[in-house]
Amino acid sequence: MTRISKEPEERRAEIIEAATKLFIVKGFEQTAVSDIVHSVNVAQGTFYYYFKSKDDVMLAIIDQLHDETIQQLSIIVKRTDLSITQKLAALSEAEFQLNREHDDLYSQLHSEENSGVHQKIIVKAIRKMVPLYAEVIEEGVRQGIFNTKYPKEAAEFMLVSTKFLFDPGIFHLSSDEILQRGQAAQDISERVLGAPKGSLAVNMNDRLVGIKKYY
């Protein structure tokens, strides 16, 4: 079959699209680079021109999903009909629900074999979300709702703790342990922010349904 010359960005996007479909259908571990290049009808060298490895493609795929998530979360930050504490709760809930929409991809990462790429993805997600959370926390400080000198660091602490503590690829928890950690995370976050007790409560029973499917 004759290979068609395409613009670099178009070719890169084509490889990402093909890899996404293969990862969902065959599984990340079961998909080889040869499967991806065969699907796109390009030489293996073309693949390595755009990506260093299969892990690199997965990072690019999740990076796109993170960008979409950030766009949705940015809308919440700009809303004027929500209080500061409601915004933080809405950010957390929206991110959780958006991630659930892509369970077919994220579930590929919850194995020891993929721990390296998995942790890179978590770190990239945290770095992208910190500015949004910090912006809300800073506004909360200005309004006298929160009392912290370190809005950015508080945002980092909240995101790092929840991202890692509830990740099924890192910890294997029972339902009771998940609920306990949820209550603890809420209490600790309120203390870090100097927020009113109970102001950052989320529905952990609903979260439990989404989290437990990975265990």
What does this structure look like?
It is built from ten helices and no strands. Helix 1 (8-26) crosses helix 2 (33-40), helix 4 (54-78) runs antiparallel to helix 5 and helix 4 packs parallel to helix 7. With 215 residues, it is mostly helical. It has two domains: 8-50, Orthogonal Bundle (Arc Repressor Mutant, subunit A), CATH 1.10.10; 54-212, Tetracycline Repressor, domain 2 (Orthogonal Bundle). The protein has helices at residues 8-26, 33-40, 44-50, 54-78, 84-100, 103-106, 115-142, 151-165, 175-193, 204-212. The mean pLDDT is 87.
Percent in helix: over 70%
> What structural class do the secondary elements suggest?
mainly alpha
- Compute the number of strand runs: 0
Which regions are unreliable across 5 or more consecutive residues at pLDDT < 50? none
CATH topology name of the largest domain: Tetracycline Repressor, domain 2
CATH superfamily of the largest domain: Tetracycline Repressor, domain 2
Termini gap: 44 Å
Named CATH architecture of the largest domain: Orthogonal Bundle
Please report the first level of CATH classification, the CATH class of the largest domain.
Answer: Mainly Alpha
Q: Indicate the mean pLDDT.
A: 87
Query: Largest sheet, if any?
Result: none
Any idea what the radius of gyration is?
A: 20 Å
What is the tally of helical segments? 10
Shape: elongated
Sequence of secondary-structure elements:
HHHHHHHHHH
Share of residues in strands: under 5%
**How many domains is the backbone divided into?**
2
